[in-house]
Design goal:
- With 162 residues, the chain is mainly α.
- It has two domains: 62 residues, no CATH class; 84 residues, no CATH class.
- 59% of the residues lie in helices and 0% in strands.
- The chain is built from ten helices and no strands.
- Helix 1 packs antiparallel against helix 3 and helix 6 crosses helix 8.
- The longest helix has 14 residues.
């Protein structure tokens, strides 16, 4: 994290002020809270770096804190893809045992209803070898495999999104 912060600080003076990105494009989390109200690419880089490395976005989303909205509107497929990409190792661990924080968070992002969560968790465990089909799987392939498995389950097929 220190290297990222130092690098962001060093490159900030060389970035044109016209390269301002749209507000609210750094996500939510500790970085968004720390750099709230600051504009420019430098604070955005620092905010997104802090959000990505501090590992507290799941807490912020589920608790509605740290600039996150518990009931926020997100394009589900993009949110799921981003979450899987950022949490692939944790998902592998949690799916292998059928429980865990990252698996709970994935279920929430996929809008799995309470009555279907037990089935979702047990399916993830039962089909772990199909979902994580190789040791060095990509997030995209893992997600495709998971959706394929879910499509075969009557209770879970309704949650499959492209």
């Amino acid at each position: 994290m220190k290297k990222s912060l130092i690098m962001a600080i060093l490159i900030t003076p060389f970035i044109s002020a016209t390269a301002m990105a749209a507000p609210d494009n750094v996500g939510c989390g500790l970085g968004s809270t720390l750099f709230d109200g600051q504009s420019g690419i430098g604070p955005q880089i620092l905010a997104v770096t802090t959000n990505g490395t501090s590992g507290n976005q799941t807490f912020g989303i589920t608790s509605g804190t740290l600039g996150c909205e518990e009931g926020g509107v997100v394009q589900a497929s993009v949110a799921v893809q981003m979450f899987v990409g950022s949490n692939l190792d944790a998902l592998s661990r949690d799916m292998s045992i059928g429980t865990g924080e990252s698996l709970q968070s994935l279920a929430a992002l996929m809008e799995i209803k309470a009555e279907d969560k037990a089935r979702f968790f047990s399916t993830a465990r039962a089909y772990y070898d199909r979902i994580f089909s190789t040791d060095n799987i990509t997030a995209g392939t893992m997600l495709e495999n998971m959706y394929s498995v879910m499509a075969e389950q009557e209770a879970l097929a309704k949650y499959v999104r492209a």
